[in-house]
């Protein structure tokens, strides 16, 4: 992505000034803040506690799958799917090993869970925030929650139905359920403050939408405010800053430049029919299929100026968000979180082939697409 952005500058496809303007500062601040919070969660041991809790309550394969889907899906809606993918993959691998279930199956369950669980939250994944930032007249939390929460719950149920055969009976862990000892110097309360900031900001966003106050706390402010306690009270803030995902931040900055340059050519706009911006099913399908080629975030960055025009229906906004997100369930290349999880599994000697992933991903994505399409087309636009 960076090489492509540099080439557009060298060849004069976009001027340096326009390249700077193309970079969305809100998205960059949002990602920076959420990565800091995610690193704080990683250092606090809270996710280890969560996995320990799953281990202790997983009395059967069915219960284990339910707990993985529920906890990982919910956490991705709050802390972003890529963050949970980075932190959760090695822990879920250990959990699968101790309980004697399929490690590839556990990794696929994690992929599907963090992808699907992030659909109904504007901070659940980068593309959702990107979409929310282009519809400032709508309250993003109220819009996403009211329009996508119920179909997302049903879609999480689809994951359970198709992955249940991979989770037979669990065995009692010989090594116990404790996943590493937490240092006595570790203090989780700064992360609790971060969560308080996030949920307070979400609450203010919802209240603003319900009472049509005309102003709400910008999502990037929520992320940056949530990052402050982690930075201020961390004894190793330099290491924390060094360990956040700078590669993804570079990717996004370069992506904005490259996608703006590509958009200026007008080539890809011709691929969508004139009615494409008003057809819920077409937007859903386009989001799923195009994301396999250029990934979901570049797809949204490239097509949102066309699809999210002035006066766009809220259902089209939600169709773009849900289609580009559940695209990650179709193939490994559909979402960055999949690549993160699969790469971490490979480092531990667990191979997840594209064939195995697609064996479950294709039917899961098809039924999820049907759920979102039916739900978004059945509800009048005014009620969302």
TrEMBL record:
It comes from the Archaea. GO terms for cellular component: plasma membrane. InterPro entries: Cit_transptr-like_dom (IPR004680). The keyword ATP-binding does not apply. The chain crosses the membrane at residues 20-37, 58-78, 84-101, 143-163, 189-207, 213-234, 246-268, 280-303, 315-340, 360-381. One of its GO terms (biological process) is transmembrane transport. It is found in: Cell membrane. Residues 1-309 form the Citrate transporter-like domain. The keyword DNA-binding does not apply. Keywords: Cell membrane, Membrane, Transmembrane, Transmembrane helix, Transport. Its main location: membrane. It is a multi-pass membrane protein. PANTHER family: TRANSPORTER ARSB-RELATED (PTHR43302:SF5). This is Transporter, YbiR family. The lineage of its organism: Archaea, Methanobacteriati, Methanobacteriota, Stenosarchaea group, Methanomicrobia.
């Amino acid at each position: 992505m960076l090489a492509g952005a540099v080439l557009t500058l060298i060849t004069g496809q976009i001027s340096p000034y326009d390249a700077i303007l193309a970079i969305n500062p809100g998205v960059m601040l949002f990602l920076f803040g959420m990565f800091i919070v995610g690193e704080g969660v990683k250092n606090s041991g809270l996710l280890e506690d969560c996995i320990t809790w799953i281990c202790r309550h997983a009395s059967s394969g069915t219960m284990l799958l339910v707990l993985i889907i529920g906890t990982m899906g919910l956490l991705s809606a709050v802390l972003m799917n890529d963050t949970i993918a980075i932190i959760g993959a090695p822990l879920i691998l250990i959990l699968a090993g101790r309980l004697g279930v399929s490690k590839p199956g556990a990794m696929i369950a994690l992929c599907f869970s963090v992808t699907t669980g992030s659909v109904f939250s504007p901070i659940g994944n980068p593309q959702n925030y990107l979409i929310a930032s282009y519809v400032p007249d709508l309250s993003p939390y109220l819009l996403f929650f009211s329009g996508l929460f119920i179909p997302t719950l049903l879609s999480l149920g689809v994951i359970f139905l198709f992955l249940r055969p991979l989770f037979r009976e669990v065995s009692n862990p010989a090594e116990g359920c404790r996943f590493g000892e937490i240092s006595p110097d570790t203090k989780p309360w700064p992360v609790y403050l971060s969560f308080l900031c996030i949920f307070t900001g979400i609450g203010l966003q919802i209240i603003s939408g319900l009472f049509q106050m005309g102003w709400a706390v910008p999502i990037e402010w929520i992320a940056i405010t949530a990052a402050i306690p982690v930075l201020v009270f961390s004894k190793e803030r330099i290491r924390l800053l060094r360990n956040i995902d700078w590669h993804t931040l570079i990717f996004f900055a370069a992506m904005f430049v490259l996608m703006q340059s590509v958009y200026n050519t007008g080539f890809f706009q011709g691929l969508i029919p004139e009615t494409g911006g008003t057809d819920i099913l077409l937007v859903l399908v386009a989001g799923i299929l195009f994301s396999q080629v250029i990934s979901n975030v570049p797809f949204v960055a490239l097509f949102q100026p066309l699809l999210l025009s002035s006066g766009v229906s809220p259902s089209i906004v939600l169709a773009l968000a849900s289609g580009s997100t559940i695209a990650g369930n179709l193939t490994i290349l559909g979402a960055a979180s999949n690549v993160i999880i699969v790469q971490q599994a490979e480092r531990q000697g667990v191979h997840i082939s594209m064939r195995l992933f697609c064996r479950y991903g294709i039917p899961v994505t098809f039924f999820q697409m049907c759920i979102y399409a039916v739900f978004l087309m059945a509800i009048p636009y005014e009620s969302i």
